[in-house]
Amino acid sequence: MSIKRSGTLPDIINIIKGCLAGSRRDQELLYRRHAAKLYAVCLQYSGNDDEARDILQEGFIKIFENLIHYKNEGSFEGWMRRIVVNTALEKYRSKHNLYRVDDIDTIPEPDASPETDDYSGLEAGDLLMIIRDLPPKYRMVFNLYAIEGYSHKEISRMINISEGTSKSNLSRARMILQKKVSFYTGVNKKVISG
Amino acid sequence: MVNKEANIDLLFRNGLRDLEVLPPAEAWTNILPAIRRRQRPVMLLRSAAVAAVLLSISFLAYKWSREFSVTPANPFSAYENAVQPADNPLNVRAARQLPFVADNLTDRKTDYTLAENMAAPVTATDENIPQAAVTYAEVPDNMMIPGNIGIPSLASASAGLRYRTAVVDEGFDKQAEIICNLPVEKQERWSLYAGASPDYYMRPGFNNAKVPDQIYQSEQARISYSGGIGFAYKINRKLSIQSGIYYASVGNEVAGINSFAGFRPFDQTKGDHNFEVVTASGRIYTDNSDVFLRDISGDRVLTRYTNDVFDPVKSDLSYLSNSLYQNFSYLEMPFMLRYKLIDKNIDFNLIGGLAYNFLINNNVHTVIDGSKYYIGKTEGLNPILVSSSMGMGIEYTISDKFSLNLEPTFRYYLSPFGDATGVKTHPYSFGVFSGLSFKF
User: Per the CB < 8 Å rule, is B11 touching A127?
Assistant: First the structure.
């Protein structure tokens, strides 16, 4: 194979400059470098793969459009992540009315299983699967609060709910996650020991 | 309970922190056209901005050059200033008798009319002042015009120039003297120039069902350039012809074609190429047997190694890029006419003509980590192109011999680059040639 490679990976600042100058190569380089991580974020916020792909695409288009506003302050990856999360939020808000109000009543209760704090058997992929199984309202609040670190006040403004609703949604989300995690770790342990 | 909540939060926060999942392959190809659509208006705005800046510069330069021509440094203007004071009746008379028009004077073809109280109007030009009526004399320094009309600034301004005075014969008012500025002009008919220009190529919309929309959508011109040397011959004061030899490089990006390296061990083809890619300019034939090509969403790639026969991912080929870059190099011989519209310190010219472009090289490559990876050649290209150009030249004289040129030029190709797709498309380009010329 005769691929000629020269130099080290271009510095992110140079890639950003290239993107701002309209360089296709740098745009693709930026995408290839960060797409996998950002796609994981998209999956975390969406219930299905098509929606996640849409969020990723729209997110990257916004990233390219708004690169000029990036002030080189703080982590570039964090800046991109915020754009993708905001895109997911927009998507959620636009679909909000489509989700049934009685989601809360239709949550399938996990089977009773031994609760444990030992989560060592869970991989990142399992966690992603569990979080994606949450109803959208709970998933959104849990992601924004527990993963992104927003307060209930901020979340209430972001998705147009009251602080009380945000707190109760978070509580429900945690409860479901706790049970599912316990269930999966319990199953894993049984499989290993049995 | 609080601990448990904190644990579950931490579990997900830490567990998902470094998670990476490869997005579907089509995600990037869907992003690309959206970025392009948004960039096109920006490109148009930029072009409009460049055009506006050039027009503004041209206008300012024109205004400035007009102002420059009536500054006191000009001996004739100095003379006008010298005869302006009105308190001396003789001066008033002299001023009325010598109604010089500065614009005429600077045009170096003087047409002086002595009017009003003259017995008979006399018209005198450089060439045709009647010998019987006019005598010439060298103007000595500190010369005083009879009637005590002093022109002190004239003497100081005359350094380096040869002045003559045309004294209208005795029948006319003795005080009416025409001072002619007749610098001896050496005719420099030839000039050599060198310069370069970035060019932006565009293609008209195909509007033709024969060319799949995908080909048009996926191809985009890249910034190209040309540069070289030339010469010009001045036929007369206004008109000149010019020619020369230029090297021009034209680039084109074909997006949406995935390329992989490492195909050689799987290559069973006996022919000279494995892949063909249909483009608007011609067909790309792969010369490099190590390369594997696949159209992401269309059928522009013609090969026997179709999706059901060969999977580059399963075969562990190295992904290179999703764009191919065509490069065409031409030797260009222009034959241009240049007409001088404004002859000042900054000249303005209209330029137009034809150019013959001889294809000397063409290659196709892709780019990985800033390095070129050779793919092959484009077949079906027109070996000789004829293009027509029209532009506006701005020439700033630095010295007697040297001048700077700036020429925004529009070029239209009378011949198509190629007609492999069955439709002849005539590209056009816009460039700003800048360079230096030397007169001799």
Answer: yes
